[in-house]
Amino acid sequence: SAVISQKPSRDICQRGTSLTIQCQVDSQVTMMFWYRQQPGQSLTLIATANQGSEATYESGFVIDKFPISRPNLTFSTLTVSNMSPEDSSIYLCSVGQSDTEAFFGQGTRLTVV
Amino acid sequence: GEDVEQSLFLSVREGDSSVINCTYTDSSSTYLYWYKQEPGAGLQLLTYIFSNMDMKQDQRLTVLLNKKDKHLSLRIADTQTGDSAIYFCAEKKGYSTLTFGKGTMLLVSP
Fold it and tell me: What is the rounded CA–CA span in Å between residue B67 and residue B61?
């Protein structure tokens, strides 16, 4: 299984600021995804991080608010921009190497005050 | 309705078996997954089953799939207090992304 490292593991941020979350995988993976888990809720897909091209966003999520980079097959970043308390969530990176595998990082717990 | 549904809460005694149930609506799902999330942690992949299988066993875990009824269950034998967590069912079609249920909180009492 892939080993996924997310940084930071948690942060407390002031409203109006931005936070960039990093996801590093120990092997090259085909697919990388970013999910959000709001308090007490299930996971919602934000976007698919595409290597070498713009990310594919799900309904309700836009690039200006959640810019994503994927410069290579082992690394991606998600930025939460102009944060408000409603952005307080756990943000999770997920990777898939084949159509069977779906592994998650430990998540980034974000609190916006 | 929701694509993937789970009961929200299950309480068992240590040593008993736990059965967590899940129903899904998309008959074209190719894989179905169970994840475990402990407090403050990410998701740990427990097991997954291909849609053309009926059962998969891995140590204390048994997954049963009834494709006709679109029903998936996870049985944990000899449940321990360390099994207390939220368990998420998820479905997937090919290389597409996962659709999650809302999670079942399992509480194991001594």
Answer: 19
pLDDT at B106 over 90: yes
CB neighbours (10 Å) of residue B77? 13
* pLDDT per 10-residue tile (average), chain A, 113 residues: 91 98 93 92 92 91 97 96 97 84 90 97
| B44-50 and B55-58 strand pairing | unpaired
pLDDT in tens, B52-66: 899 999 999 999 999
- Note the pLDDT of residue B95: 65
A92 vs B42: CB contact, 8 Å cut-off? Answer: yes
**Of the candidates B30, B29, B7, the residue with the CA atom closest to the CA atom of residue B20:** B7
| Spatial CA neighbour of B74 closest among B59, B85, B61 | B61
State the best of A7, A33, A34, A42 to mutate against chain B, taking most chain B CBs within 10 Å: A42
| In chain B, residues 13-52 whose CB comes closer than 8 Å to chain A | 30-31, 33, 35, 40-45, 48, 50
Of the candidates B40, B48, B88, the beta carbon closest to that of A109 is on: B40
Three-point CA angle B95, B99, B104, nearest 5°: 140
pLDDT number for residue B2: 55
- What is residue A30's predicted lDDT score, i.e. its pLDDT? 84
To the nearest 10°, report the CA torsion of B27, B45, B98, B87.
80
